[in-house]
Amino acid sequence: MKALITNAAMALLDDQITNAAEKGVTDRFYGLIPNGYLLIENGLISAFGPMSALQENLANNTAMNQIDDAIDAAGRLLTPALIDCHTHVVYGGHRALEFEMRLKGASYAEVAKAGGGIVSTVSATRSQSVEQLVEGALARVDALIAEGISLIEIKSGYGLDIETELRMLRAARSIEAARPVRVITSFLGAHAMPPGEDMSPEGYIEKTCIPALRQAHKEGLVDAVDGFCESIAFSAEQIVPLFNVAAELGLPVKLHAEQLTRCGGSLLAASHKALSVDHVEYANKEDVIALAAAGCTAVLLPGAFYTLRETQKPPVALFRDQGVPMALATDANPGSSPMTSVLLAMNMGCTLFGMTPYEALAGVTRNAARALGISDSGMLRSGLRADLALWDVAHPAELAYRIGFNPLYRRIFGGQIT
Ligand code: DI6
Ligand code: FE
């Protein structure tokens, strides 16, 4: 199966590109080829370059003959398909009433303390079957796919008991069979204390969270282990036993850290060589240096910053200076970020956090893949999966620039136009 895309403006997003000039790259950040071609073979990117080299390559490379599918991009922009590397799209119910409370002045932490917040979604999630959870999640996943997403991370964390945590992960896994999209799951049993139980946080981690993780892992439901390290959730010390079990099971870790306060999550994550630390509005220089040394990616979540009307911005300049890769994601969840638009997250990353449009695009492609420990997607490079997005725009900065506008023209998933 061979497909050839011609006459595309291409943004490779490959920061390790070799022979850039030979490949016709005119902008080293985006890896821009103003008028290029890309060949797909058996679901993978097999060759690309400037249109001027296409005829020559066709002559030299017999593999480039017998094209099954030809797409004339007519000057449109081709990028890697987008990746949403932090979501909570599997849940029951909604929290619109809490939205009203917060608009009247209640803070997120106050709502949580009053029994609203995460625990109210827990009750709604516990009451749903796996089929109901999938149905609810698919509406949100479809909105993401419509924006050119090919890979979604989905967390558990609204069950807080063994059975419902497993049900959430089964729902997340079954999305792959229902839609042309890849799913990476994160076990987030350490999201909040379960409501109405007389247990210490340490007891909950020991008696519920760790057994749930072991069982979910046994069933092949877990790709990574996450936690909510926060004043209203779990302390760094309380999360340590969970991370130790993750290490024992050979699972990578990540952490919601320094979202509302500085709680030591970044230092904990760095010491466990976490894939990512997420939110990080309150991270300081010590944190950023530790994250850089550990090779962690910072996942910035402007939807939650916006929804909670937070004023403390993540330390973007420090991340840049210290070389911490920045990813961007929706944090799609019913409470702090009821947002299912990666394009809007890109716009917010620029306008609210001061990221550049290039950083925003790298944040939802190359660096989002990195935050998930994925190396077969997120860039245009020979040998990687042909997960691509073709946009009705001419320049990549346009993707972050518009608000509430979706210029996706075609999405290609594993070489198939979907
Ligand atoms: N941080 C968040 O922003 C979400 N979870 C977390 O740990 C919020 C989840 C919710 O409010 O339902
Ligand atoms: Fe989150």
Protein described:
The protein has 418 residues and is an alpha/beta fold. Helices cover 37% and strands 21% of the residues. It is built from 16 helices and 16 strands. Strands 1, 2, 3, 4, 5, 14, 15 and 16 form an eight-stranded mixed sheet that branches. Helix 9 links the parallel strand 10 and strand 11. Helix 5 crosses helix 6 and helix 9 packs parallel to helix 10. The protein starts with a strand and ends with a strand.
Give the topology, please.
Layout (H helix, E strand, L loop, with lengths): L1 E10 L20 E10 L2 E7 L3 H7 L8 E4 L4 E4 L1 E3 L11 H8 L4 H6 L4 H9 L3 H16 L3 E7 L6 H17 L3 E9 L10 H18 L5 E6 L6 H14 L4 E4 L7 H7 L4 E4 L5 H10 L2 E4 L1 H6 L8 H7 L3 E3 L13 H10 L5 H7 L2 H6 L16 E4 L5 H5 L6 E6 L2 E2 L1
Parallel strand pairs: 1-4, 1-5, 6-7, 7-8, 8-9, 9-10, 10-11, 11-12, 12-13
Antiparallel strand pairs: 1-2, 2-3, 5-14, 14-15, 15-16
Bound molecules: 3-[(4S)-2,5-dioxoimidazolidin-4-yl]propanoic acid and fe (iii) ion.
